[in-house]
Automatic annotation (TrEMBL):
The chain holds residues 2 to 227 of 388 of the full protein. Its EC number is 2.7.7.60, 4.6.1.12. The record marks 15, 22 as: Transition state stabilizer. This is Bifunctional enzyme IspD/IspF. The lineage of its organism: Bacteria, Pseudomonadati, Pseudomonadota, Alphaproteobacteria, Sphingomonadales. Its cofactor is a divalent metal cation. It catalyses: 4-CDP-2-C-methyl-D-erythritol 2-phosphate = 2-C-methyl-D-erythritol 2,4-cyclic diphosphate + CMP; 2-C-methyl-D-erythritol 4-phosphate + CTP + H(+) = 4-CDP-2-C-methyl-D-erythritol + diphosphate.
């Protein structure tokens, strides 16, 4: 079956700085949000995009998308979790499709093979996420001095897009009991005891968080098109 992609783009992009929230800033001439839309829609299994934007940012989003179609555009919330929940409710209201991809607008470049792997993993699990093993040494900082080392064996960096069966991830969001804000959706599913499958991620999916990340992504883009 086909998948509907939810792109969350309702953040403020404070760490990236710049005059405009990062999702509207250009990478090689195209706003991040348009890159993410193209990367998702290019995949034959992706049926359409539901876009979550900050309240009042609808016009800016339409301009950035420059004619790219969306199934729905809905206002997000104060946290990423709330924004995803709004997007999932919009998907549910569409009433078609039983699988979703949830994706950060701040990850503009999505290799097709990653979506292939997610779609395949979803045949046997309610959720699947792309991961990369941690390469650096991990340690706690102890007031300016090196603290305890955290064994990195088995530790994964979790990326998006994340793939879910719609009913399962919708139930996880609707049943969220509050407390510490989750930083992604897979952890919400796992909290319900549902196993989440791991597939190989890709460095190109690393999130644009800080100003220098734009340069890194432009280098990748240039390499991919040369
Ligand atoms: N996001 C969202 N709604 C929020 C917060 C975040 O839709 N209330 C989205 C962002 O737009 C981004 C993704 O979630 O695409 C990942 O979040 P992050 O990288 O933290 O983006 P920002 O919250 O915008 O950046 P920062 O934390 O630096 O302010
Ligand atoms: Mg944030």
């Amino acid at each position: 079956t086909d998948m509907i992609a939810v792109i969350v783009a309702a953040g403020r992009g404070e760490r990236a700085g710049g005059g405009l929230p990062k999702q509207y800033r250009a990478l090689a001439g195209l706003p991040l949000i348009a890159h993410a839309h193209d990367s998702l829609m290019r995949h034959p299994r992706v049926a359409g995009v539901v876009l979550v934007v900050a309240e009042g940012a609808e016009e800016m989003a339409r301009a950035a998308l420059d004619g790219r179609p969306v199934l729905a555009m809905v206002p997000g919330g104060a946290t990423r979790r709330a924004s995803v929940a709004a997007g999932l409710e919009a998907v549910a209201a569409l009433g078609h499709g039983d699988r979703v991809l949830i994706h950060d607008a701040a990850r503009p470049l999505i290799p097709r093979a990653v979506i292939d792997r997610l779609a395949a993993a979803l045949d046997d699990a309610a959720g699947a996420v792309p991961v990369l093993p941690v390469a650096d040494t991990l340690a706690r900082g102890d007031q300016g001095a090196l603290g305890d080392i955290v064994p990195r064996d088995g530790l994964q960096r979790v990326q998006t897009p994340q793939a879910f069966r719609l009913d399962a991830i919708l139930a996880a969001h609707r049943g969220w009991a509050g407390g510490e804000e989750p930083t992604d959706d897979a952890q919400m599913l796992r909290a319900l005891g549902e196993p989440v499958a791991l597939v190989a991620g890709d460095p190109v999916l690393d999130k644009i968080t800080h100003p220098a990340d734009f340069d890194r992504a432009e280098t990748w883009l240039a390499a991919a098109s040369s």
